[in-house]
Design a protein that fits this description.
By secondary structure, this protein is mainly α. Helices cover 70% and strands 0% of the residues. Helix 4 packs across helix 9 and helix 6 packs across helix 10. The protein starts with a helix and ends in a 10-residue tail after the last helix.
Length: 351
């Protein structure tokens, strides 16, 4: 219903004109040429090519699913919950707007498309660009915790965000309007979160609703999330990854709170208070546990939902929504729960 209202109104046609603007399209093509991308897609500047490929990975869900555990292991559960909530809000808001407006990615012959991972998703806004605001939020949290901040932290966050957003233009997967929309919507989500963060984190640290209520809300959201019938889209699966990590973290925190209240309430001291080799071993054990949890739950989910062979796939290798979405929700939920549960194992392992 929301999609029909917006498409029938003035918002979608207006944004569509911006997305397909000839002037903006020409500017995007010029940007690629300046950066050394030829029209046939071959790069003439290997250094920039590898830099932008690296930068775009900083905005992927997999990167944040990998880096968020460090917030918990080094900064404590409140910091981890703040970051995972901000991550979830930014990317879910972007995915919902994409599905409502249903605007195309760049499709001009002058633009070389160098990445195809998200080709089945709509373009506006750029959720990679929105994810760049997490760096600013992290800097703000550090400044709040330590009542001061290093003068290089904000420039580093700005470089982080700009690198991600410009990488989407370099790769030809987003228009200038997509990136600008990501900047505006990401800023709006950040401002909204600033007003809600204390109440939201307090509710997660000391919940009145049980874990089942969280799982039920997430399941209902994914059930109602649009599933394009005409063409397979990775958007429902991407949203399941985001919500899966958040759900796993939330349920994992409930488990830790019940089993080890002192561990849950503690805030780690300075990094120097623990020897560096111990930090490295904890990280290795933690990431190994997360990997095993994902592999095991994914295998069990695919077998339960798709049968012994994992279920059917289409000619392009796409898994049906009925198998893909729950599998990603459960497997990445296991990743999130394993991440926040790892501190329970460290004393048992002498770490």
């Amino acid at each position: 219903m929301a999609a029909a209202v917006v498409k029938a109104g003035w918002i979608r046609p207006l944004v569509l004109r911006l997305v397909l603007s000839p002037r903006a399209t020409a500017a995007l093509a010029r940007f690629q040429r300046v950066c050394g991308v030829r029209e046939d897609g071959t790069p003439s500047n290997p250094l920039l090519h590898h830099f932008f490929h690296f930068a775009t990975n900083l905005g992927d869900e997999a990167f944040y699913a990998s880096i968020m555990p460090l917030c918990c292991w080094l900064g404590g559960y409140p910091l981890a919950l703040e970051m995972i909530c901000m991550f979830m809000l930014q990317l879910v808001a972007g995915q919902v707007v994409k599905e409502i407006l249903q605007l195309p990615r760049p499709r001009d012959d002058r633009i070389a498309v160098l990445e195809h991972h998200y080709a089945t998703e709509y373009g506006f806004p750029s959720t990679h660009t929105m994810s760049g605001y997490l760096a600013f939020h992290f800097v703000a949290l550090l400044s709040e915790r330590h009542a001061a901040s290093h003068p290089l932290l904000f420039p580093a966050a700005l470089l982080f965000a700009l690198s991600i957003s410009t990488s989407r233009l370099y790769l030809g997967v987003h228009s200038v309007a997509d990136v600008a929309g990501g900047v505006v919507l990401g800023w709006g989500v950040l401002q909204a979160w600033q007003g809600l963060r204390h109440a939201a984190v307090e509710a997660l640290l000391h919940p009145t609703a049980g874990p089942g209520a969280v799982a039920a809300v997430v399941a209902a959201f994914l059930f109602l999330f649009p599933r394009p019938a005409a063409q397979w889209s990775s958007a429902p699966g991407t949203t399941a990854v985001i919500l899966g990590v958040w759900t796993g973290v939330t349920l994992g925190c409930s488990l830790v709170r019940g089993l080890a209240p002192s561990t849950f309430a503690s805030v780690p001291g300075s990094l120097a208070s623990t020897p560096a080799p111990v930090h490295v071993l904890r990280a290795l054990v933690g990431y190994l546990g997360m990997l095993l949890a994902k592999v095991l739950v994914k295998a069990l989910a695919r077998r339960a939902l798709g049968g012994p062979d994992g279920g059917p796939v289409d000619a392009q290798g796409h898994v049906p929504y009925g198998v893909d979405v729950p599998t990603k929700l459960w497997s990445y939920g296991a990743v999130g729960a394993a991440a926040v549960g790892m501190p329970l194992l460290w004393p048992l392992l002498g770490l």
